[in-house]
Amino acid sequence: KAGVTQTPRYLIKTRGQQVTLSCSPISGHRSVSWYQQTPGQGLQFLFEYFSETQRNKGNFPGRFSGRQFSNSRSEMNVSTLELGDSALYLCASSLAGVLVQETQYFGPGTRLLVL
Amino acid sequence: GDSVTQMEGPVTLSEEAFLTINCTYTATGYPSLFWYVQYPGEGLQLLLKATKADDKGSNKGFEATYRKETTSFHLEKGSVQVSDSAVYFCALKGNAGGTSYGKLTFGQGTILTVHP
Fold first, then answer.
1. Distance from CA of A92 to the nearest CA of B (A)
2. At B102, phi and psi to the nearest 5?
3. What is the mean pLDDT of residues A44-70?
4. Which residue of A4, B1, B92, B95 has the fewest CB atoms within a 10 Å radius of its CB?
5. How many CB atoms lie within 10 A of CB B60?
6. Is A59 in CB contact (< 8 Å) with chain B?
7. Under an 8 A CB cutoff, do A58 and B103 touch?
8. Do B101 and A4 touch (CB under 8 A)?
9. Is A21 an 8 Å CB contact of chain B?
10. Per-residue pLDDT averaged across A87-99, rounded?
């Protein structure tokens, strides 16, 4: 079974621009979660989507948004980029995201550099 | 809210040494606990997990036991190899309903370097 895939793997943007990242979950997984990883803040939960609906979100400004399509693929968008948005963005998928014992499987991440 | 605290790092060991990385957590109810590993330039890989008290997760020589009385999930390996050099993350998934959906709470990560 193919793993979680993320595109692109690397991005360079300038302040004020917007960016869209894509994530394709493992086949059959319907829950997709996004995380931001930075040296200073570590791994922080952005939001989770299930059945095209955002079910849970972390403590990030409204510039961070996402969506999920009917095939469970997900995108996240960051508008009006700031230098502090430079990070590794990780996507993870799981079957349904509800059960406490469910395992999340991570993609390789998209490394975003904001200049 | 949920939180995970890992031992301060980095950790540097010689090959075949014994490894312990401490992890303690705060959560309501009965979370599941995970250890993930991240190699340079890659995403996170699940190393092991435990879903209830006294469960022991194990994989590739690594072990961790879910201790509810001490709210801990320490990672151990009896004999580390150079190839174990990576960043290790302790994480929990809570069961507080909607606020737990699809959410892992991570510790700050521990960098492990193993020298030949």
1. 9
2. 65, 15
3. 96
4. B1
5. 12
6. no
7. yes
8. no
9. no
10. 91
